[in-house]
Amino acid sequence: KGQISNIEALNIRLDSQVKQESQGDPGQVPLAFKQFSMAQKEKTLEDLLKNRWLCTTEEGKIGLGIRAFLELRSLFKNLDV
């Protein structure tokens, strides 16, 4: 729970992450989302892990890193997460 595999992370379609109302109109999906290559995804994932926004769990999955947790802790507290 709260983890994703490296392969799952790399296979996420970024254009599907745009708000639902934007999905009906392909013109509203940012061009960068449409053209994000696998190499760019791998580099971004590597950078997020290196900078501790994400972490690797003991099971080899990817989870929320300490840096992201610290940035989001007030939100988590307000939502009783």
Automatic annotation (TrEMBL):
It catalyses: S-ubiquitinyl-[E2 ubiquitin-conjugating enzyme]-L-cysteine + [acceptor protein]-L-lysine = [E2 ubiquitin-conjugating enzyme]-L-cysteine + N(6)-ubiquitinyl-[acceptor protein]-L-lysine. It is an enzyme of class 2 (transferase). PANTHER family: NON-SMC ELEMENT 1-RELATED, NON-STRUCTURAL MAINTENANCE OF CHROMOSOMES ELEMENT 1 HOMOLOG. Component of the Smc5-Smc6 complex. One of its GO terms (biological process) is double-strand break repair via homologous recombination. Its main location: nucleus. InterPro entries: Nse1, WH-like_DNA-bd_sf. Its EC number is 2.3.2.27. It comes from Pinus taeda (Loblolly pine). The keyword DNA damage applies. Belongs to the NSE1 family. This is Non-structural maintenance of chromosomes element 1 homolog. The keyword Metal-binding applies. Keywords: DNA damage, DNA recombination, DNA repair, Metal-binding, Nucleus, Transferase, Ubl conjugation pathway, Zinc, Zinc-finger.
